[in-house]
Amino acid sequence: MIEFESVAVVAEGSPGAPDVTILAGVELRLPERRVAVIGANGSGKSTLARLVNGLVLPTSGRVLVDGLDTARHGAAVRRRVGFVFTDPDAQLVMPTPREDVALSLRRLEPDAATRAERVVGVLDRFGLARLVDVSVHALSGGQKQLLALAGVLATEPAVLVCDEPTTLLDLRWRRVVDELLASLDQQVLLVTHDLEAAGRADRVLVVDGGRVVVDGAGPAAVEAYRSRMAIR
Ligand SMILES: Nc1ncnc2c1ncn2[C@@H]1O[C@H](COP(=O)(O)OP(=O)(O)OP(=O)(O)O)[C@@H](O)[C@H]1O
């Protein structure tokens, strides 16, 4: 369960300039398994997503994940909430898939031999078994995004927050990642510009000017967004 209680995020303006309100008046209870966040560029979607794992903290109000306040229990929240970025290069820090997933598993599996076995199992599950020792730089964009997802899911988070995870991918890889996300047991909060993917969510939040302006079931909320943006 993700909860936002009267959340606002305000950034300090440059010297002499007024502060900038990035999000305001966000009040949400999100028990749904599939939540999509859509909206124009710069509307505040990433900020909303980053609040869920404490990457951004509220200036006022509270964000709770399973009752844990992100401002007071950041480490516990981050163990519960996995975060996937648009660009997998932001996430992949080790030279090979084997080492990258092993790093993710370090806390969860202290025994090196068992960890090594689990790494192979994880990479196999994501169709990357063939690429365990290939340089991360040699992977395609789609393979990198799958590896980033594998690393995050290996830590067994209860919630997965994905900030435009398919934006850099071609149609084929977009489908692979979409299907993978759809198959997960975890609660998934997906920030996306892909309105088809958003329409499949149980609940869609439309963000505009730092506020949640539409909150509803997938297809109806996407339609409301199309009307607001006058796009067909
Ligand atoms: N730390 C900050 N200081 C000042 N302004 C910020 C800061 N972080 C975000 N902003 C501004 O807040 C607004 C919302 O940013 P955010 O990244 O959440 O939007 P977004 O909806 O995810 O955009 P996009 O679809 O382009 O990724 C933008 O105008 C951004 O420039």
TrEMBL record:
Gene3D superfamilies: P-loop containing nucleotide triphosphate hydrolases. This is ABC transporter ATP-binding protein. GO terms for molecular function: ATP binding; ATP hydrolysis activity; ATPase-coupled transmembrane transporter activity. Belongs to the ABC transporter superfamily. InterPro entries: AAA+_ATPase, ABC_transporter-like_ATP-bd, ABC_transporter-like_CS, ABC_transpr_CbiO/EcfA_su, ECF_ABC_transporter_ATP-bd, P-loop_NTPase. GO terms for cellular component: ATP-binding cassette (ABC) transporter complex. CDD domains: ABC_cobalt_CbiO_domain1. Pfam families: ABC_tran. Residues 2-231 form the ABC transporter domain. Keywords: ATP-binding, Nucleotide-binding, Transport.
